[in-house]
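**Folding the chain**
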Amino acid sequence: MATLSDETLRKILVQIQQTAVQSQRALNISKQQIAAKERERRILQLTIEEITSLQEDVNLYKGVGKMFMMVPRPVMEKELKAEEKELTEDIKTLEKKTKYLEKQFNDAQAQLRDIFQSAPS
């Protein structure tokens, strides 16, 4: 490392710091998205539970714009379960992204630590 000029070291340091900051921001956004999707999925699960607890002859309505449309029970259940499955897949994808971003952030921090520890006093 001693063979690199001060300017080159400064550029490398700035680049690593930027990577760490970007990773941290993306990680926070990813965690917020996971929380939102989890909330949405929980609401769907509660809705499915409520629908299945209703009697078979109860009419179900779905909001469409400013009106409500009657929807057959099997269609409503199928739509809700498909939406729940999609949210679950989204959450899994976001969790993978979060793990990658955490690794990227930890790597950047480790590089910074190594640079400062190996710097001459």
The CA atoms of residues 24 and 105 lie 6 Å apart. Helices lie at 6-53, 73-118. The chain has a mean pLDDT of 90.
